[in-house]
């Protein structure tokens, strides 16, 4: 008789954003005239830029002709894209990463969910708290999280590293030693960043303890400050301890196009086995590559014109971030993030819980944000707004919040 | 200290097609003038058809404008595509499958590799032998296969169902009762098919034993005979025991476009938990949807014009299949498949092993096929040729083989 994976049944109710979607839908039904502004989910709103569109059309045309048609892509991605990534994201930043250490994929969500699979079920996982829910949920599904404690909102086998006002929204070295450490900087949800020297401490710690850092750099294009590293490979020793995840979603607006990549240096070994070989095996066995036309669009992101356009997109969103940040600050909110990141993290006023503030904001301003508690217990009392909205709507949302 | 997933290290050398690619590369280097014809890997060669190309261009243009830009897709796929699938692939064939039982994905390889994840590690898996390697390898990676026996070429915990000349290339009910049964018909690699009454026996067996059938119908568009079911849901009771996997790769030529779907009826429960809810959770947590433009291309496959074009593509490849089948038969080869399937399965001549025949064919005809033994121990002594090549080249390949 067949049995299900019982670890799946441990998962807590439904995914954060599904819950939000449900609440918003209900509000819409009860308030059909409400002009809702969504600053909740981290989805972009600007269309793809001209260079990207041109590259997509061109690649589509190639698929129409026998001589230029492309079937199955190379397992790990097309050379033209991997080379462009290696050159622009790594070589130009002084990072020693080569094209054959890059695995092209359909996005950072898949990669951040699947990457845990190459590790033993016994590994202890450490996450920032609050944290992008996918890291925790996928470890629950793999049976690595232990049991859930309703009271604390924590899993018994997960090491939580609180990132609160008191820690400057950065994790501190935990008292228990983890085997796998998820770090996402610029951070989702708090918008906090780590300086290079601070990240170097984590790299040193991981090397010393033979732990692996899974570094999610999905928001690196929002970095403005010189001392904030764009890649963990800017730190010495990272080739011996770190995997890096990257996305085209938040720089080039590919949330609906789907493209990302994972970097695993060939020098990263555990018990004599390279993690590169394990991930290559997973890629080759359970995945069949990102679409050719999408990989061509990814290549266009690195063209001179493409880079300019992408900077324009990022600037557009960062203007929103600045408006939100300044507006809320002026109104007396305690806010952080929003400087090197598209997320603004605010302390809920009047001692409201995160979900209370969610309901309050929806009811009084018709604005949708994300409750901090949805990202982990230390997110309670905080709230996330994103800068990915339309500029005019974002301004209106801030004005509504301020005058609420 | 971090540890790797030791189940990954159990995997046998590299994936079949990588080995073939290596051998072909070596042959090319040693014989730079050889005009190699590839009838090995199941990749298509015809370009995308006009309707598909138009739909892609149109969707790309939508991504260029703020008002029609699409970000994150709905978790389980766009309604327009799921409805087209439900209507055309199921309703029109009298199958009771609704749009919300369909999960759109980036292809059948991902789905067939990932689907095992929702089941317990204790489940016993049965596969046809020979078989598409992904079913076995992904169960090895999940720790479900036991240990490998070099002598027999079998995993201790996998139930092998030999499909040989003696069984008409169809599986027979195994003596041990499996929990999960992988069936792929029309079959890869042998090109054999199951009649509806024969498939009904498997459905009855699964229902009786509370087993799950994972039915891979990636090749259904090649079916010509009336008594061969296109979907397992044509059988009574399948809603209580079967998951179906589908692909756009082999009908519409999407091997490089990447689109597929999985059907899980909401009536399919194990211990009171619907498999639909588990797969929805996996989809929502580890995946972020197929690209909008690709889902629009999938929709176009179901337009009237699209359907005509797809039939043209399939006919093109089936003409190849007929040519290969008849040519080899006339030359005295023992061949099967190739009637309702794009694969031709031949008995290697002169008692050669599968790999001996691979080398022999490459050396004497510069033709690349796939050794049957690469698909499992009962594939030894057989060889697969595919009909996905260019028509002229396919003819030349057959002529070379016949005159070898």
In brief, what are we looking at here?
By secondary structure, chain A is of the alpha/beta class. Chain A contains twelve helices and 17 strands.
Q: What do these coordinates show?
A:
Two copies of one chain form a homodimer. By secondary structure, chain A is α/β, with parallel strands linked by helices. Chain A folds into two domains: 6-47 and 305-402, Aspartate Aminotransferase, domain 1 (Alpha-Beta Complex); 53-303, Aspartate Aminotransferase, domain 2. Chain A has twelve helices and 17 strands. The first copy, chain A, has helices spanning 6-10, 16-30, 50-63, 79-90, 108-114, 133-141, 196-209, 275-286, 292-301, 304-330, 354-365, 391-402; strands spanning 37-38, 102-105, 125-129, 148-149, 154-155, 158-162, 180-184, 212-216, 242-247, 260-263, 269-270, 273-274, 335-337, 343-347, 367-368, 370-371, 382-386. In chain A, the strands form five sheets. Chain A has a seven-stranded mixed sheet, sandwiched between helices. A four-stranded antiparallel sheet of chain A has the order 13-14-17-16. A two-stranded parallel ribbon of chain A has the order 1-15. Chain A is globular. Chain A starts with 5 loop residues before the first helix and ends with a helix. The interface between A and B is large, with 83 and 83 residues.
């Amino acid at each position: 008789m067949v049995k299900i994976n019982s670890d799946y049944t441990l998962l807590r109710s439904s995914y954060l954003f599904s819950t939000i979607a449900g609440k918003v839908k209900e509000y819409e039904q009860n308030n059909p005239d409400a002009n809702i502004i969504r600053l909740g989910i981290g989805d972009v709103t600007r269309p793809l830029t001209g260079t990207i569109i041109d590259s997509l059309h061109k690649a589509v045309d190639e698929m129409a002709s026998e001589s230029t048609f492309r079937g199955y892509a190379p397992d790990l991605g097309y050379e033209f894209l991997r080379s462009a990534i290696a050159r622009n994201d790594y070589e130009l930043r002084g990072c020693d990463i080569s094209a054959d250490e890059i695995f092209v994929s359909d996005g950072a969500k898949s990669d951040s969910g699947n990457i845990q699979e190459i590790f033993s079920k016994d590994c202890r996982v450490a996450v920032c708290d609050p944290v992008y829910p996918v890291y925790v949920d996928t470890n629950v599904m793999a049976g690595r999280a232990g049991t859930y404690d309703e009271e604390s909102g924590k899993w018994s086998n997960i090491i939580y590293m609180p990132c609160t006002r008191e820690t400057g929204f950065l994790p501190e070295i935990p008292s228990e030693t983890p085997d796998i450490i998820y770090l996402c900087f610029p951070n989702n949800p708090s918008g906090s960043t780590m300086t290079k020297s601070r990240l170097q401490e984590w790299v040193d710690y991981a090397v010393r303890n033979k732990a692996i850092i899974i570094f999610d750099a999905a928001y690196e294009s929002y970095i403005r400050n010189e001392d904030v590293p764009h890649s963990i490979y800017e730190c010495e020793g990272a080739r011996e301890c770190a995997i890096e995840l990257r996305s085209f979603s938040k720089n080039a607006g590919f949330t609906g196009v789907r493209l990302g990549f994972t970097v695993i240096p060939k020098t990263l070994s555990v018990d004599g086995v390279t993690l590169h070989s394990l991930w290559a095996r997973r890629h080759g066995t359970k995945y069949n590559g990102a679409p050719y036309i999408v990989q061509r669009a990814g290549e266009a992101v690195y063209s001179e014109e493409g880079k300019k356009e992408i900077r324009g997109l990022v600037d557009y969103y960062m203007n929103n971030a600045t408006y939100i940040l300044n507006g809320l600050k002026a109104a007396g909110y305690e806010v952080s993030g929003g400087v090197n990141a598209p997320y603004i993290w605010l302390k809920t006023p009047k001692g409201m819980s995160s979900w209370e503030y969610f309901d309050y904001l929806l009811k009084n301003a018709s604005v949708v944000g994300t409750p901090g508690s949805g990202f982990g217990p230390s997110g309670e009392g905080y709230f996330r707004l994103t800068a990915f909205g339309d500029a005019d709507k974002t301004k209106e949302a801030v004005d509504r919040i301020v005058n609420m």
